[in-house]
Amino acid sequence: MRRAARARLAADTALLVTAAAFAVPLLWLVLASVDAEADLRLRIPSSVTAGNFDAVLTDEITFTPMLNSLLLCGGATVVSVVCAALAAYPLSRHRSRWGRSYLLTILFTTCLPITAIMVPVYGLFVQVDLIDTMYGTALFLATAQLPFAVWLMKNFMDGVPVVLEEAAWTDGASNLQTLTRVVLPLMGPGVTVVTIYTFIMLWGNFFVPFMLLLSPEQLPASVSIFTFFGNYGSVVYGQLAAFSMLYSAPVLVLYILISRRLGGGFALGGAVKG
Amino acid sequence: MSAPRTGWWRWVPLAPATILLLLFLAGPIGYCVWIAFTDTQLTGQAGSEFVGWDNFRRAFADDDFRNAVGLTLVFTFVSAIVGQNTLGLALAGLMRAASRPVRTLTGTLVITAWVLPEIVAAFLLYTFFRREGTLNAILDWLHLPSQNWLFTLPILAVSFANVWRGTAFSMLIYSAALSEIPREVTEAAEVDGASGPRRVLYITLPMIRRSIGTNLMLNTLSTLSVFGLIWAMTRGGPGNRSQTLPVFMYDQAFLKSLIGYGTAVALLLLLVGSLFSVVYLRLMKVEL
User: Fold this and answer.
1) Which of B17, B23, B173 sits opposite A272 (nearest CB)?
2) pLDDT (tens digit per residue) in B156-196
3) Prediction pTM value
4) Which sequence ranges are marked TM in the entry (chain B) (predicted)?
5) Domain range for A37
6) Which of A118, A222, B57, B71 is least surrounded, with the fewest CB atoms within 10 Å of its CB?
7) What share of chain B is helix, strand, coil (3-state, %, to 5)?
């Protein structure tokens, strides 16, 4: 038993050292956001202030970009999840060679580096006049996230027993009615996970809106934080930290929601593994 | 009157997703293949001409391109294959032996770094590695030599940033894999007198080899497309010393206005990605 205790102590020590390394940048973020004289170094603020948050809570810096992010990512998430739910249904319920190849293609697409196609996407968007439009960018974001959403949704849908649908069919329900009234309610947690996961991925996406949106008043928070703080000669680090906290808060909260619901964050790893 | 369960139109719900994928994914990929063989430029040119393999020939003769390929290999090897993968596996393994509060604390911190938006992570690591930043403060305090990391070793700085940001994914995959190993197997080995390291080498690792393959592929694929993290930390600089392929592609296509050339580079990146994807699908042996 003493060997077990020693092993535990060694594991704890190793983990705590790693945890400290991961914590340092995060601690800087939290402490700098309430420090009036924050610089690049991690330090305890001499006096705690809410001034940094006051300074960034303006229309120009926070509210407009966050609203843009919400419209852009919210819209894209809705499109992505609705399309994924519809597509996952036949893929999950009807076995055929055709459906199999479709799923393989989907899985193949989830792995493609989306970054690589941004140059041609930009070119196409200029030609069809979708460049610098919110809906065009949202549609592209929805598509970029769609293969993975279909894959996750199909896996969750496989877990819903088919017997209940057969009952609905004999009662005369159509395919769409069966999907919306029987299958989706039964896989509620699954749909929630797909929705929140899609939203988190889109909220953090920088490259797509960076390429496809040009007018400053349309930029989401991921890009505005870069143009606003990245191009200023003297950066006010406390304000940068405060804004980063505000911008990160929604995804952190959402992640906690899904990880609680699934008993720890480990379920997603299982889902990804297939 | 039961709903039809046969016939082609049971596949109709696939239509919206398929249309989106064709328009916004297959379309650009096809366009990518076409543009890569032309001399399209961003401005100042009326039309674009078909130039055959010129863009590719030019790429392989271009020192900057070769530099980008080399840096991409270093970045992928250091951050994905060595960093995220090994650290993720080590963390997952240690967590099984550690006490509960330590496990929760470490898991929370590592996952927080992963969930944070890419650009926030980039800013945090930028402040960490800057000359006046926290890393040098710690080194000073330990009486170790400090330096300007983003200038002397930019590619290592961005690689470490990618490890910080991406390790959680590997940790989650490996935690799931390790929890599926039956207890009896490790206990039997223990009874047979196999030491800790031997147990890991001969029992644990072979049992999770499929997860290792999967994880290596997924890490490589996501690392190949990292752009925002590097762009926000160094913009590929100083000079081109942290210019990986995505940054090189962006630089050529938009800052140097050579859309055709940039797209050719993008196509190469896409080909490498597809190759990895096919290997990944093979590894997964998906049962559909």
Assistant:
1) B173
2) 999 999 999 999 989 988 888 888 888 788 778 777 777 77
3) 0.88
4) 12-37, 68-92, 104-129, 149-174, 216-234, 254-281
5) 1-49
6) B57
7) 75, 0, 25
